[in-house]
Every structure is written in C-alpha cells, then in structure tokens.
Amino acid sequence: MNENYRHRQLLALLNKQKALSTQTIIEQLKVSPATVRRDINKLNELGLLKKVRNGVEHLHYTIVHNPELVDTTHNDEKQRIALAAADICKAGQSVFITCGTTMMMLGQQLCGRDIQILTNYMSLANYLIKHKHSDLCIMGGQYNAEKDITLSFNSSDYSHYYAANIMFTSGRGLTEEGLFKTDMIIANSEKQMAAKADRYVVLLDSSKLDNKAGMLFTRINDIDTLITGQEADPEIIQKLRDKGLKIILA
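and the corresponding structure tokens:
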C-alpha cells in the first residue's frame, strides 16, 4: 500500500468516525506502528487532521471551523482532491493558486514545501505568512474585500512579472465543452494567470461534473488535468477521457 493511498484511506476512516486511536489505524490499514506514526505526523503537518495523544481527531476541529473556509460541502472529497493536487507538485516548482475552499486546502498542504506559491487570494496569503511559508508571491492589484482577492486591471502586470509551472483553479461546473465559471470578476483575473502557466489543472468535486453554470471559461482542449473525487460517475469520467482529458481520481 503506497503512501498516497494510505493517506486517503486514513482520511476516509476519520471522516466516518471523527476520532481514531493509533491502534485502530494499525488494525484497519494493516500497517506497522512506525508507518502509522509517519502518516499521522505528515497529515498533521499538512493540516488534514489533528494529532492527539494516542491517536487523531477529525479535521472538523482544525479546518471546518477555520473562518477562512466557508464552503464545507463535500469536505472529505475536497481534502482528497487537494492532497492529490499537492502530489503532482515537485520541489522547486512555481504554482498559481486561485481562490476557494479546495484552493485553501491545497495551499495548506504545500505550506512548508520547496514550492513557490503565487496567489491573489488573501486568505491563503495570510495563512502562508502566519505559518512562515518561505516562498510566497502575493500578486499585486487593488484589494476586493467581497471576493477576498487582489485585482489588477492591467493585463501586462501578469504577463511581465509572473509565470508558473502549474495553475490550479476550480469552477462551478465541467462538461465535455470545458470549465464553467459564474463569477466574472474572479474569472477575469484568473484568465490573465492562465496565460502564464505551463499546465492548467482543474480541481472539482464530483458533484460539479457534467454541470453547466455561468460562462464557458476554459475549453476542454485547454485543460491539462482534472482532479476529482472517486465518487464521480464512471460514465461522465469516460466521456471526458474520450475528449483527451487526463483525469486523476482522488
């Protein structure tokens, strides 16, 4: 059982039971005490669970009550998606991270790693500063309190100064046509970022697949990878793969 799979299994168990003893994890995952200790320490550092004496507690105690995260629907699935997204990031890379619940979770997982994070999402930036992430670039512009992002109305601000290996984004829906978004202000700022990223990766929980909402923002051919939950409808997944889209099921 590889590390990524173990982490997903542990988080799934924790989502059901809210608290687990170390011994229960050993028995359920059929792994050694040393392996469980390593897994608990890593997931605790990533902010995906709370390490307590002789066990762990559900993320409810650490993230769901975090005022920076408002939308906690499909919380467990989003945690797994964020973990899978973090797995594709390599040391020394730069990544654009946009705004939203899953993006916050991704940023929390990357915090402390040798990854340059570029963002205009102020809640994420504040979190990374608080937790002393060493390589953070806050993208400039006027602060929009309602959206909790900085906005630049000059596209050259992005094209001249920023670039990244990967852009991570989300949306309201994804079909065989592409990614849909409903917030035009946020969409406009993200369009400028997308032009300066080598890879375009969409993070969406399975409830948003095969859903049209708002404006078609990115056509399917321009999306490199979709990361979604294993709960996704297999027929929808196959239709998207038939369009040439690479999909990671978390």
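(Above: one complete record from the training split.) The first strand starts at residue 19 and ends at 21.
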